[in-house]
Write a structure and sequence with these properties.
16 strands, 5 helices, alpha+beta, five-stranded antiparallel sheet
Amino acid sequence: MDTYYTLAAPAKAVFTEKRSRFISFAIPVTSREQAREEVKRVSKEYFDARHVCWAFMLGADRLDFLSSDNGEPSGTAGKPILGQINSANLTDIVIIVVRYFGGIKLGTPGLIVAYREAARLAIEEGEIIQCHKKETFTFTFPYLAMNDVMKVVKSSTELDILSQTFDNSCTMALSMRADIFPEITGRLLSLDGVCAADWPRISYPEDNSRVKVMNLWPIMLVYGKGCQAGYVALHAPGSLLNKKAGAVGEDYGNFS
């Protein structure tokens, strides 16, 4: 999945049910640590509340999630909050709901409805935006290849330079949309002396002569033109290869 949805900025809502007051926060986050820090911050600010319940969802694939009832009956708070995140198809978000008890018990069905509504209102108060999944690529290149490298880097507005060092041997780290990753990395690796720096290396013959296509699909062998080592490309689109790979076990050719 190359696109996903999250909130542009934190949002807040207030909901009252049978004198119980629910204050909900929908906050964009990018890690578990950040989500937990937001929960700690809100818990500290509303230290006198009866419950501070929450749920988060992370990652473009929406596979990293967690919820907490924080003392409410099991399944009556965290799961309804998480359910609203799923209903809105959001990720990279934590929703925190603070409850001040109003003296009237809501019962299990009432709690589920109340926490669900509080979470929904917080999402409704926010602005939902579409984002693109990003990939990073770190590579080295000789200083003489600088002009050719920068032509590729400047060819896309969806590409950011995270870091760069310039010497006789240069290093650059890029962040880019996942959907353009194969094209950009393929163009860079086709340049003389450009080598991937952040892919796991593989062994190759001591005489630096020939290697074979590995039977590890979807992992395929790629290398930078003129580089002294091969790399495993976990993304493995065919466009990453400097020349067309043959069948498994087929002679792939020289590194340089």
